[in-house]
Write a structure and sequence with these properties.
- α7 crosses α8.
- The chain is α/β, with parallel strands linked by helices and 310 residues long.
- It has a 5-stranded parallel beta sheet, with helices on both faces. The protein has a 5-stranded mixed beta sheet with strand order 7-8-6-11-12, sandwiched between helices.
- β11, α10 and β12 form a beta-alpha-beta unit.
- 48% of the residues lie in helices and 20% in strands.
- It folds into 2 domains: 138 residues, Rossmann fold; 150 residues, Reverse transcriptase/Diguanylate cyclase domain (Alpha-Beta Plaits, 2-Layer Sandwich).
Amino acid sequence: MKVLIADDNALSRKVLRDALSNWGYEVILAENGAEAWEILNQPDAPAMAVLDWMMPHMTGLEICRRIRQMRREPYTYILLLTSKNTKDETIEGLEAGADDYIVKPFDEHELHVRLRAGKRIIDLQLDLLRAREELRERANKDLLTMLPNRPAICATLQAELARCHRDHRTVGVILLDIDHFKKINDTYGHFAGDAVLKETAARLRNNMRPYDQVGRYGGEEFLVVLPNCDLEQSTAQAERLRSRLNATSMMVDGFELKVSASFGVTISDGAERDPDVYIRVADEALYRAKASGRNCVCSLSLEDSSQRFA
């Protein structure tokens, strides 16, 4: 764990550095408050800081206040070094945001114990952050295919529509549906159906540009978002996905299955519209593809849609 030591006294810095290095910490030194503040604002800032109360340019107390005002994550554990040892000054330091303090001249064993307590707090906080991120990811993922789920892919579409509207570009929207999926479930079982969904998701994801997005829209339907694509480009991409999906059979529980999908394609028209508008038009195009015999691509603009939008 990296620890910042900020003290304007060279001897004090050396004693602290030697002690912390012996205890296994990676030590970063600062000679004044301004230098310490700059280090703590770097992307890979130390998780712990040992700050002298009185320093040139910026006191340890002021650094504490600034860090706590930022409410940043991950947490920075701050231990104040002070020659002050009155109740009022101790309270002042803790109210400024210090987690602990130690009085100069310090006892090495006491410092070691206090740093160890700080490390436990940081480790616990990092565990909480990881757990929170995992929950957030799970909330946005379809756990079967590991693609974004319906709310997540719809949010992506909304964000891309807003961005491309500002940049005067279009967004391609593809809605696809695995052909005869119910028959796969009825014939081979739902485990086979799940395997087909996972393999379909993998083939779609592996045949897209890095900045394109695909998510599971529901059941056997998938929604694809193509930033900066016109109708011709979006239709061509849909055809590539259709071809790659149907090119080789899927091996599912010892069975060789030929899987295809029908694709409906549309693009944004530059107006500020609800994302559901484009999904509905893509859905209309999808039904036309199914009516045309399935395993094909049908594209449809808003102007050519049977639906009317204000």
